[in-house]
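Lab notebook, bench 4. The sequencing result for the construct came back, and we need a structural model before the next group meeting so we can plan mutations. Quick request posted to the team channel:

Model the 3D structure of this chain.
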Amino acid sequence: MADYNNYHDMVNKQNIEKMRVVLAELPRFCKQFFRGIEHTTSTRTRLGYALDLRIFFEFIQENNLSMRKIPITDYPLSLLDQLTKEDIEEYLEYLELYYKEDKEYRNDER
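Done. Here's the predicted structure in token form:
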């Protein structure tokens, strides 16, 4: 087993562990994406992307009637082809202010 003595290695280990949890909540096709960027991105970048994707797919599940009854992990890749300009605009509006687990999140131009 690897020895995680320095700060960088410990952070990478923590990010990998968090990433595994988030990936288990995402559509299966996302794993292929993350494998593809693994060698060109840091663990922190990949974790950030995964968290962003989780928010996106949770938004889709809450706001798209046809996807509401399907577990996020079962979303097909073809779902992305079905998204419209309006879907993306609604998502961006949602990101300005949303709530998750009783916590408020705000995003603005900064």
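The mean pLDDT is 91.
Will bring this to the meeting.
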